[in-house]
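Q: Convert this sequence to C-alpha coordinates.
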Amino acid sequence: MSEAIVPAAYAPVFVVMLLALLEYFWFSIAVGRARYRYGVKAPATSGNEDFERVYRVQMNTLELLAIFLPSLWAFALFVSPTWAAGLGVVFIVGRLLYFLGYVKSADKRSLGFGLSMFPTLFLLLGGLFGAARAMLG
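A:
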Protein backbone atom coordinates (compact mmCIF):
# COMPACT_ATOMS: atom_id res chain seq x y z
CA MET A 1 0.00 0.00 0.00
CA SER A 2 1.37 3.42 -0.91
CA GLU A 3 1.94 6.21 1.56
CA ALA A 4 -0.80 8.81 1.81
CA ILE A 5 -0.15 12.17 0.15
CA VAL A 6 -2.40 14.01 2.58
CA PRO A 7 -1.83 13.69 6.33
CA ALA A 8 -4.39 11.50 8.12
CA ALA A 9 -5.49 14.50 10.22
CA TYR A 10 -7.28 15.82 7.12
CA ALA A 11 -9.24 12.62 6.44
CA PRO A 12 -12.25 13.81 8.50
CA VAL A 13 -12.34 17.02 6.45
CA PHE A 14 -12.44 14.97 3.25
CA VAL A 15 -15.24 12.84 4.72
CA VAL A 16 -17.25 15.96 5.63
CA MET A 17 -16.68 17.50 2.20
CA LEU A 18 -17.79 14.33 0.44
CA LEU A 19 -20.82 13.92 2.74
CA ALA A 20 -21.85 17.52 1.99
CA LEU A 21 -21.61 16.75 -1.73
CA LEU A 22 -23.51 13.49 -1.28
CA GLU A 23 -26.23 15.41 0.56
CA TYR A 24 -26.40 17.89 -2.32
CA PHE A 25 -26.64 14.99 -4.77
CA TRP A 26 -29.57 13.65 -2.73
CA PHE A 27 -31.24 17.08 -2.90
CA SER A 28 -30.81 17.00 -6.70
CA ILE A 29 -32.54 13.62 -6.85
CA ALA A 30 -35.33 15.04 -4.67
CA VAL A 31 -35.85 17.79 -7.25
CA GLY A 32 -36.18 15.21 -10.02
CA ARG A 33 -38.68 13.24 -7.97
CA ALA A 34 -40.61 16.42 -7.15
CA ARG A 35 -40.77 17.29 -10.87
CA TYR A 36 -42.45 13.97 -11.49
CA ARG A 37 -44.71 14.10 -8.42
CA TYR A 38 -45.96 17.64 -9.07
CA GLY A 39 -45.95 17.54 -12.88
CA VAL A 40 -43.38 20.30 -13.40
CA LYS A 41 -41.76 19.60 -16.76
CA ALA A 42 -38.16 20.68 -17.39
CA PRO A 43 -36.94 23.33 -17.92
CA ALA A 44 -39.65 24.99 -15.79
CA THR A 45 -38.68 25.87 -12.24
CA SER A 46 -42.01 27.28 -11.14
CA GLY A 47 -45.68 26.50 -11.33
CA ASN A 48 -46.16 24.40 -8.23
CA GLU A 49 -45.35 25.72 -4.76
CA ASP A 50 -44.48 22.28 -3.35
CA PHE A 51 -42.01 21.70 -6.19
CA GLU A 52 -40.56 25.19 -5.84
CA ARG A 53 -39.67 24.62 -2.18
CA VAL A 54 -37.74 21.44 -3.02
CA TYR A 55 -36.03 23.24 -5.90
CA ARG A 56 -35.10 26.20 -3.68
CA VAL A 57 -33.44 23.88 -1.16
CA GLN A 58 -31.26 22.49 -3.92
CA MET A 59 -30.38 25.91 -5.32
CA ASN A 60 -29.81 27.52 -1.91
CA THR A 61 -27.53 24.63 -1.00
CA LEU A 62 -25.58 24.99 -4.25
CA GLU A 63 -25.14 28.71 -3.59
CA LEU A 64 -23.92 28.03 -0.06
CA LEU A 65 -21.56 25.21 -1.10
CA ALA A 66 -19.60 27.76 -3.14
CA ILE A 67 -18.75 29.49 0.16
CA PHE A 68 -18.73 26.49 2.49
CA LEU A 69 -16.24 24.23 0.68
CA PRO A 70 -13.34 26.69 0.25
CA SER A 71 -13.98 28.02 3.76
CA LEU A 72 -13.91 24.47 5.15
CA TRP A 73 -10.50 23.87 3.60
CA ALA A 74 -9.04 27.27 4.49
CA PHE A 75 -10.05 26.71 8.11
CA ALA A 76 -8.73 23.13 8.08
CA LEU A 77 -5.36 24.16 6.65
CA PHE A 78 -4.77 27.33 8.64
CA VAL A 79 -6.64 26.74 11.91
CA SER A 80 -7.66 23.15 12.71
CA PRO A 81 -8.78 20.16 10.64
CA THR A 82 -10.62 18.73 13.66
CA TRP A 83 -12.65 21.90 14.24
CA ALA A 84 -13.24 22.29 10.51
CA ALA A 85 -14.68 18.77 10.34
CA GLY A 86 -16.84 19.40 13.42
CA LEU A 87 -18.23 22.64 12.01
CA GLY A 88 -18.76 20.85 8.71
CA VAL A 89 -20.91 18.23 10.42
CA VAL A 90 -23.04 21.02 11.89
CA PHE A 91 -23.40 22.41 8.35
CA ILE A 92 -24.54 19.04 7.00
CA VAL A 93 -27.07 18.56 9.80
CA GLY A 94 -28.24 22.13 9.27
CA ARG A 95 -28.78 21.55 5.56
CA LEU A 96 -30.75 18.38 6.31
CA LEU A 97 -32.97 20.26 8.76
CA TYR A 98 -33.30 23.05 6.20
CA PHE A 99 -34.48 20.52 3.62
CA LEU A 100 -36.92 18.80 5.96
CA GLY A 101 -38.37 22.08 7.18
CA TYR A 102 -38.50 23.93 3.87
CA VAL A 103 -40.26 21.15 1.95
CA LYS A 104 -43.04 21.27 4.56
CA SER A 105 -43.35 25.06 4.66
CA ALA A 106 -41.09 28.01 3.91
CA ASP A 107 -41.70 29.17 7.48
CA LYS A 108 -40.02 26.03 8.87
CA ARG A 109 -36.58 26.55 7.34
CA SER A 110 -35.07 28.92 9.94
CA LEU A 111 -33.37 26.42 12.27
CA GLY A 112 -31.69 24.60 9.39
CA PHE A 113 -30.73 27.92 7.82
CA GLY A 114 -28.99 29.06 10.99
CA LEU A 115 -27.28 25.72 11.56
CA SER A 116 -25.73 25.90 8.10
CA MET A 117 -25.04 29.64 7.78
CA PHE A 118 -23.32 30.21 11.12
CA PRO A 119 -20.77 27.39 10.76
CA THR A 120 -20.07 28.59 7.22
CA LEU A 121 -19.48 32.14 8.42
CA PHE A 122 -17.25 30.89 11.24
CA LEU A 123 -15.23 28.76 8.80
CA LEU A 124 -14.92 31.68 6.39
CA LEU A 125 -13.77 34.21 8.97
CA GLY A 126 -11.56 31.71 10.78
CA GLY A 127 -9.95 30.61 7.53
CA LEU A 128 -9.35 34.21 6.50
CA PHE A 129 -7.85 35.07 9.89
CA GLY A 130 -5.69 31.93 9.86
CA ALA A 131 -4.43 32.58 6.33
CA ALA A 132 -3.66 36.22 7.13
CA ARG A 133 -1.83 35.18 10.29
CA ALA A 134 0.24 32.65 8.33
CA MET A 135 0.99 35.18 5.62
CA LEU A 136 2.18 37.79 8.13
CA GLY A 137 4.31 35.25 9.94
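The CA atoms of residues 66 and 136 lie 26 Å apart.
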